[in-house]
């Protein structure tokens, strides 16, 4: 029998649960449609949808979904208040892409039914009064979702409140404070962090994170997002001084935050340029601002980021101001501070540029990436470059270093580096011309020990020395690599002419590589299996750098290499095709079918008959033709191979 006391306790607990559920409300769908016409909306259906997204957010609680029909939504409720944002509560899912008649979220199509969260509050929406932060999240948990919308035209304003700190100037599309949402299929377009403030002799720096700013240990996950045409702020300028440019044209990650990016595209984002200065307040000469780093993404010390299946096209670091010894912005696509590890899997970098150099200044480094430890796995880096050093009247700037990557340590596997370029030195007509940049593809300046395996380098160039002047620096070195303390193995480094040797460094060792000028290069150690022969790419002029049949790089990699289970090359083909691994990023297919001795594409009795001859020969020096029977790659044709051949007959 159940005791009376137990029943009473159960009733009390049940009553408490009822009160708790009533206080938080049950999870539900809240509807928003800018074109809804019901005079008494409550968000309970498409017919009674809210017309203002702010009304839906005001009643949403954790577990709710907010469905938004196509249209333009502004955060200010028509008041013109630039401080207003769409604040998404923790645990709420905000879904765009509805036509306004769907019964299930799976029926929506964000590409057709576009939902715009518009920062431009005026008409036109650009530069006519813009929200400082279009969307905000504060302490939002990882079950918070922003999905299928476009966030555009947020504009920061440099505001000097307590201690000169404000959040009006950054994260103009999305500001994350201690938040870890999923951000999926969101487009961030033309969001601008504020330019530096200038007054009298004070010039403030430009702000960071044009579209997204992550702070206070945020941990967002971006999936399938696009970042297009966003920029960090330019440094301010006065007659006496100039501020530095802001970093992270699209995204800035700071304050212990860690962000992940999967399947995202970064296009034409730009870090801020440094301001150009006048003469120093103490009469010590001209002062200018440094350029901001990370044209697309900037990761500050203590923060982190990983990138998977992302593309970076035509992003640019900030340029330096003129008239001083200021440096240009580093990392045309991604820049990390000292000590920040960066990892890229299956990513594509093309046409990114480190910052340009102002008058007499040196150009930025890392045409695509600047980082401490940079890990690249199955990535393509093509046509990235550092800018040339600035021309000067007496001293000219040096060219940027690391046409694709500049780092303290690089670990790269199954990657291709094509037509990247370190910058040339600036020209001078009266004094010293600038030196060319080192490392046409990769520059590594640290002592941590880099590893480059199964990579292909082609068409990369170091920088030329600047012209003119009474004397000058030297040309850049290392058309592909300028690396301290590294091992390069199973790779191809080949160019069709250019300045200097293919590589130079300190304790830089090559093993089982095909490298132009393999016997030259300061600090280069040529190890076992190094050759110097045209690798015979299929059609490099059309971009096909696979290996032709007969290439000297085929079956020329490390004979002791054992491919892990499932190992593939850059194109997803099995890493070892014919017993011995190839050099470079692409594995060539075998020019025979295993077991098919006569080459008629059928395994038949004739092949069985020839097997016996090959088995006898393998006791001595087997002929090359017998390789078709060496199934287990032990350089012998024996009973084990015969067992395998039997399994293939007569299926052929």
Short description:
The protein is mainly beta. The protein is built from four helices and 42 strands. The strands form five sheets. The chain has a 23-stranded parallel beta sheet that branches.
What descriptors fit this protein?
13-stranded parallel sheet; flat; 25% strand; 42 strands; mainly beta
Record the SSE blueprint.
Blueprint: H1 4-24, E1 29-32, H2 53-59, E2 65-69, E3 71-73, E4 86-87, E5 93-98, E6 115-118, E7 135-138, E8 145-147, E9 150-152, E10 174-177, E11 182-184, E12 187-189, E13 198-199, E14 202-203, E15 212-215, E16 221-223, E17 226-228, E18 251-253, E19 258-262, E20 265-267, E21 297-299, E22 304-308, E23 311-313, E24 334-336, E25 341-345, E26 348-350, E27 369-377, E28 380-382, E29 405-413, E30 416-418, E31 432-433, E32 442-444, E33 450-453, E34 456-458, E35 471-472, E36 481-489, E37 492-494, E38 503-511, E39 514-515, E40 524-526, E41 537-539, E42 544-547, H3 605-617, H4 639-648
Q: Please state roughly what percent of the residues sit in beta strands, choosing from under 5%, 5-15%, 15-25%, 25-35%, 35-45% or over 45%.
A: 15-25%
Gyration radius over CA: 30 Å
Which whole number gives the mean pLDDT?
A: 85
- Compute the number of helices: 4
Taking the alpha carbons of the first and last residues, their distance comes to 76 Å
Describe the main β-sheet briefly: 23 strands, parallel
DSSP helix fraction? under 10%
Shape: flat
Structural class call reads mainly beta
List unreliable stretches of 5+ residues: 4-25, 160-164, 279-285
Count the strands?
Answer: 42
């Amino acid at each position: 029998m159940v005791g009376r006391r137990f029943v009473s306790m159960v009733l009390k607990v049940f009553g408490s649960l009822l009160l708790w559920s009533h206080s938080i409300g049950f999870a539900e769908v809240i509807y928003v449609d800018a074109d809804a016409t019901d005079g008494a909306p409550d968000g309970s259906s498409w017919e009674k949808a809210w017309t203002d997204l702010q009304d839906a957010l005001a009643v949403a609680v954790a577990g709710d979904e907010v469905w938004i029909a196509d249209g333009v939504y502004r955060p200010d409720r028509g008041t013109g208040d630039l401080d207003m944002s769409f604040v998404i509560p923790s645990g709420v899912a905000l879904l765009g892409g509805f036509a306004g008649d769907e019964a299930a979220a799976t029926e929506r199509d964000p590409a057709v039914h576009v939902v715009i969260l518009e920062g431009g509050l005026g008409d036109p929406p650009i530069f006519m009064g813009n929200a400082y932060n279009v969307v905000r999240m504060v302490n939002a948990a990882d079950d918070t979702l922003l999905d299928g919308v476009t966030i555009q035209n947020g504009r920061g304003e440099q505001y000097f409140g307590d201690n000169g700190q404000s959040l009006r100037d950054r994260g103009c599309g999305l500001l994350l404070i201690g938040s870890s949402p999923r951000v999926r299929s969101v487009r961030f377009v033309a969001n601008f962090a504020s330019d530096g403030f200038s007054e009298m002799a004070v010039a403030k720096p430009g702000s960071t994170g044009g579209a997204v700013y992550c702070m206070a240990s945020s941990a967002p996950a971006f999936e399938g997002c696009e970042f297009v045409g966003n920029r960090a702020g330019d440094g301010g300028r006065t007659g006496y001084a100039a501020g530095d440019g802001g970093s992270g044209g699209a995204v800035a990650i700071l304050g212990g935050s860690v962000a992940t990016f999967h399947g995202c595209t970064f296009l034409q984002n730009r870090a801020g340029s440094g301001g150009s200065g006048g003469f120093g307040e103490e009469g010590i000469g001209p002062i200018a601002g440094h350029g901001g780093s990370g044209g697309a993404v900037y990761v500050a010390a203590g923060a982190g980021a990983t990138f998977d299946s992302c593309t970076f096209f035509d992003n640019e670091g900030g340029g330096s101001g003129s008239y001083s010894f200021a440096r240009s912005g580093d990392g045309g696509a991604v820049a990390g501070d000292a000590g920040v590890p960066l990892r890229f899997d299956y990513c594509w970098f093309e046409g990114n540029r480190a910052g340009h150099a102002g008058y007499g200044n040196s150009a930025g480094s890392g045409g695509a990436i600047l980082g401490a430890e940079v890990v690249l796995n199955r990535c393509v880096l093509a046509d990235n470059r550092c800018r040339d050093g600035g021309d000067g009247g007496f001293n000219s700037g040096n060219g940027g270093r690391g046409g694709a990557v500049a780092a303290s340590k690089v670990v790269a596997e199954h990657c291709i580096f094509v037509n990247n370029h370190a910058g040339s030195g600036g020209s001078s007509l009266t004094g010293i011309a600038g030196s060319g940049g080192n490392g046409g593809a990769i520059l590594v300046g640290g002592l941590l020990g880099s590893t480059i395996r199964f990579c292909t380098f082609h068409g990369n160039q170091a920088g030329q020395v600047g012209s003119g002047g009474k004397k000058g620096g030297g040309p850049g070195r290392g058309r592909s690599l300028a690396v301290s303390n590294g091992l390069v193995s199973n790779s191809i480094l080949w160019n069709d002419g250019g300045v200097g040797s293919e590589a130079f460094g300190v304790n830089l060792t090559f093993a089982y590589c095909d490298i132009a000028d393999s016997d030259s290069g300061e600090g280069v150690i040529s190890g076992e299996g190094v050759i110097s022969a045209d690798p015979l790419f299929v059609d490099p002029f059309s971009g096909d750098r696979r290996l032709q049949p007969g290439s000297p790089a085929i079956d020329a990699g490390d004979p002791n290499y054992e491919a892990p289970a499932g190992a593939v090359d850059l194109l997803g083909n099995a890493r070892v095709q014919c017993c011995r691994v190839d050099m470079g990023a692409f594995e060539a297919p075998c020019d025979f079918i295993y077991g098919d001795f006569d080459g008629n594409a059928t395994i038949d009795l004739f092949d069985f008959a020839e097997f016996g001859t090959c088995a006898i020969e393998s006791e001595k020096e087997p002929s090359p033709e017998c390789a078709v029977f060496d199934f287990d790659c032990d350089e012998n044709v024996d009973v084990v191979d015969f067992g395998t051949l039997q399994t293939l007959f007569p299926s052929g």
